[in-house]
Design brief:
Elements: E1 4-8, E2 15-16, H1 20-33, H2 48-58, H3 68-81, H4 83-89, E3 91-92, H5 96-105, E4 109-113, H6 119-128, H7 151-164, E5 173-177, H8 180-189, E6 192-196, H9 203-208, E7 214-215, H10 221-229
Parallel strand pairs: 1-4, 1-5, 5-6, 6-7
Antiparallel strand pairs: 2-3
Helix pairs in contact: 1-3, 5-10, 7-8
Length: 230
């Protein structure tokens, strides 16, 4: 452990849960606000905190931005109660389990998460699909840590240093993700990016956002590992 810090996005990178998170968020927002009808907002790769603020603004509720923690209690409870439904509607993406297993076994790699999900929701998603033991979630960066995704890179590196004494740099930190916001997090947060065209953005859009390395998916385990360590 020590050559590379690899930070994985979850949705459309490791898992496809078929819009489950959007549905849960929308239902939780309705419960939180008491609105029988509200305007949803969309955008892949946002943090849950940013998503909450943007949805408040879209519904003219800009006086409530400080209530994110209270909203999250509702949102996370919804996630926890609907694990069987998420499992039934979702799947592990091609190659994801295999490459996570190899990273977990590699002494040169510390593997964690950088995701727009809150930590509890991220851990719940991985647990439902049997991936939770393959990453160290304690040292990741999450959507309830900061509203701006690039800041999560600094959060994760700080947690790693506090937990292990290892100081990773922009050259030794690698993000793996599927959206332009993942690419932006790496470019602005200070990390290398391995982008995968498994989400809503194709390879051209990911390159346009700044990714120099784009894979069609994670199916070629050896190629992915070479990129992470290269």
């Amino acid at each position: 452990m020590g050559q590379r810090l690899v930070l994985w996005d979850i949705d459309k990178t490791l898992l496809d849960v078929d819009g489950f998170g959007f549905e849960v968020f929308s239902h939780a927002f309705a419960r939180f606000t008491g609105l029988s009808d509200h305007t949803d907002t969309r955008g892949p790769g946002r943090t849950e905190w940013q998503w909450f603020n943007e949805t408040l603004a879209a519904n003219g509720l800009t006086e409530w931005p400080g209530d994110f923690a209270r909203f999250q209690e509702i949102n996370e409870a919804e996630f926890a109660a609907r694990g069987a439904e998420m499992h039934a509607s979702g799947r592990v993406l091609t190659g994801a389990r295999e490459v996570l297993e190899r990273c977990a076994a590699a002494p040169d790699i510390m593997s964690s998460l950088l995701t727009g999900n809150s930590r509890r929701n991220a851990e719940h998603k991985l647990r439902v699909f049997g991936l939770d033991h393959l990453v160290d979630t304690a040292v990741g960066g999450y959507g309830d840590d900061h509203p701006d995704r690039p800041e999560l890179v600094h959060v994760a590196r700080r947690r790693v240093y506090e937990a292990t004494g290892l100081a990773f740099t922009p050259d030794t930190t690698v993000l793996v993700g599927d959206s332009p916001n993942d690419v932006r997090a790496a470019v602005e947060g200070g990390a290398r990016i391995v982008a995968v065209a498994t989400g809503l953005s194709d390879a051209a859009a990911l390159r346009a956002a700044g990714a120099t390395t784009v894979l069609p998916d994670l199916s070629d385990t050896e190629a992915v590992l070479d990129l992470l360590l290269g």
